[in-house]
Write the structure tokens for this entry.
Amino acid sequence: MNLKLRVWRQADARAAGKMVEYDAPDVSPDMSFLEMLDVVNERLTEDGQDPIAFDHDCREGICGSCSLMINGTAHGPMKGTATCQLHMRSFKDGDLINVEPWRAKAFPVIRDLVVDRSAFDRIIGAGGYITAATGGAQDANSLLIPKVDADASMDAAACIGCGACVAACPNASASLFTAAKVSHLGHLPQGQPERYRRVLSMVSQMELEDFGGCTLYGECQEACPKEISIDNISTMNRDYIMAGVGS
Amino acid sequence: MELNSRVPAGPLEKKWDRHRFEMKLVNPANKRKYTIIMVGSGLGGGAAAATMGELGYNVKCFCFQDSPRRAHSIAAQGGINAAKNYQNDGDSIYRLFYDTVKGGDFRSREANVYRLAEISVNIIDQCVAQGVPFAREYGGLLANRSFGGAQVSRTFYARGQTGQQLLLGAYQALERQVAAGTVTMYPRTEMLDVVIIDGKARGIVTRDLVTGKIESHVADAVVLGTGGYANVFYLSTNAKGSNATAIWRAYKRGAAFANPCYTQIHPTCIPVSGEYQSKLTLMSESLRNDGRVWVPKAKGDKRAPGAIPEDERDYYLARKYPSFGNLAPRDIASRGAKEVCDEGRGVGPSGLGVYLDFADAIKRLGEGVIRERYGNLFEMYQRITDEDPYKVPMRIYPAAHYTMGGLWVDYNLMSTIAGLHVIGEANFSDHGANRLGASALMQGLADGYFVIPNTISDYLASAKPAKVDTSHQAFKDAEAQVAERTRQFLSIDGKRTVDSFHRELGKIMWEYCGMARNEAGLRKALELIPQLREEFWRDVNVPGSDVELNQALEKAGRVADFFELAELMCKDALHRRESCGGHFREESQTPDGEALRDDEHFAYVAAWEYAGDAKEPILNKEPLVFENVKLSQRSYK
Amino acid sequence: MNRATRFYQAAIGKKAVMGITGLIGIGFVIGHMAGNLLVFRGPDAMNAYAHFLKSTGELLWIVRLVLITAVVLHVIAAWQLTLQNRAARPVGYVDRKPQVTTFASKTMRWGGVILLLFIVLHILHFTTGTLRPSGFFDEADVYGNVIASFRIWWVTLFYVIAMIALGLHLYHGAWSSVRSLGYAQPSKDPLHRRIALGIAVVVWLGFTAIPVAVFAGLIA
């Protein structure tokens, strides 16, 4: 099939950007979206133009590198799927596809479709961990964790840190990302000693990074390739309020 | 070159303990005076950087991705082994040690493997303490599953995302140290050279992938944890960015490269669908528990699978290996698929595929049971191929997955360059000629959390590196060389893209140095690779400039190194005239076509030493001494 | 910086304030509606109720003070959050297609502004009698004030529109306020979402019924 792309091109963080139109002829429906971009890039290179820069790595939906706003939807039209696992059979011949980078003050564009998501690392560094220096751990089975808690923790821990939640949120809020980590560690007994300290530090870092606030549109949950629930945001809110009111 | 493995004396089970006592320590107050460079931030690198930071060292950690959380360790699905014997099924440290040595076809170093098995137990404790949400039983105890190559149930897992959860554990510990100021993180930064001063590794030269700035970083010791080189095949299950540049640069500065030809081909991957294919996706090996592998008996039979009657199908694994059948080990299942496809009986549009058929299992157990067991895998398969595996058989084909070879290291994980340490998949040490499932995660974390933080102190305390800074001529020279190479890529201005060269190199390697190798093929590859490399340096087209984010330039550097590594792999494969593990030489097989080892002539580690671009590399041998296990022939009939 | 300030500085803190003040508002609105419906039982019932409220004296002022404080805090927090949220995406998308955003959630801000305007006018209209669209206002005859005003088409229309805004605001607000305060029920179709819908519909119907009934001549 033959497609037309309109892609955001921007030379670097300070340059002005614009949407540029490209043809994508002879696209196989079995190609992944990124493979389609590879082919477009090969042609651009052969024609002496700069290829389109985009983040990607594992291409199996787990590393969280890929980050494209496709036709107005984070990671494109297929639910529960990262861009790298989206295939061209989701489009039809003659389609015009808009491809944009994630947009948020906290995610400045580096080049074309590549954005800087280091704010997420700093949120984790602020408190998204359990303080357990290597070496002093007790036997793993001395800590009993009910299966339901382990499962709930794992549901939240599935986050791949791609930033689609921020990209899709009308407020560019990082609540779902932060809440997923709060919830992952908060569901485990190991996470209890630092539970309230953690939520206060992570939330305060999230604020410093200039993300927006949550107004419960629910767009993040829809966009999340791991389908992480916004219930986690309520968990985070509860812990934050408890931390503020309590000790 | 002298290869001193520095394996401590004494009985196997006392070696590590004793060694830890004998190693020198760095006074806690002095630790912050030492700077350690950690290249790579996966399971090994992330764990090592975090732990060394916790100990008080001043750590600089580098990764080419935008965040340490993206390292390819994240993609491991199945699980991590540990000799906990929680299931009371007869497991022990010794059994895990033995399984790993045997699984590696007796080509690994006993002492290293034993230490790995010993430490496996601490890894699980450490990860649970960090909050890794391992699967649990209803009673709250940890759950285990069984995995290939073992008769006990010792694999710990977190759904199908064990690698992700373990990496996030290490990443969280790492970010804690970053926030505490003990570790400085350099994401989107690629190491392009290692700097040696007075025979010791004293730093690296990097390129900032965003600004293009070339920079020197000085340290008292350098650790590489940059993963494997399966992307030399272009199509592999590795991430697109996985590359061999760091270890290859180290090789060219004097680190010996051990067993480069030991590569693992995973049997159950989704086949290639077209020329545009950029990577291959693994389907968990567990599918072979219920799926039956077959191809048509007749060559070129293009009928739909459902139209081929039972007596015209060849269930070749069940036919050749009646006792193991569809569960034959990875290397054997992979070679079986290659054989039938070479005979022209492969299926699918490309003819490179075999069926993995669930029809019988669905009939026997019902679709519900199959959905429960493999639902997410079936969904992933359908998403990629647009075929419904509940109705038509899956098509699978082997793909390059893991590389057992890597930089040679001693018991302390130090390479042949003093102060240059190598951990995880980047070194050669623990898996011999073949790696068992659920062992890669174990090795990365063992090296990162428990081995290197100890051995690095010994190095620093004994070597007492003198003060140097980046104004040293060695840094200036390395920077100039890196800059010159970058300039060269940009100035060729040829016609072909980097990817087109990489793809062609991959095809050569897959054809001649893939699942089965022979002398004629390897010699042919050794003719083709230099020709293609010469064309690359003449006709590659790298657009853009060196002062910006330039993904084509990044790829060009990596592919240039893959060319050289590919040649070394073929040389190693050619010299090793025996079959062992993932290295199958057609000339060396049993009468029924199984891998035949030659322990008399090849029970050694082949450590290749760089001698100059125009010169043949020098082969050094570290003999493998087996004091505890008895060498035997593997059989799966 | 003290704990309360730090708490409030985060968006979650502001949302908690909005949640609590919103819940106060919801409680008030339901009570207010129930009282107003007395209009259907005739002038005596309505005026007696109004008289009763006035007779509570200081208590009434305490309630009024709580309500005014709630509204002020709600509006300030909303204003600050809106600024923060706008600032969080300085460069917008060329193409963005919301997937699940409801009309109610999308109109919280403008709907809120309409409601604020309504509240001011409503107080000036029925409480203080400053605005007298019909020319008639008798503090003792609340029933009479209502009948006289809603005979005028544009007054009725204004109230009907304002009540649509109120219904929408309640639908999203009743649900999200409890979530902002940390309550979540793991379900695709959580009960509190249905309760929110119920509150929104009942309040909208109850309040709308009065002007419409008067205008249609069902109440004289």
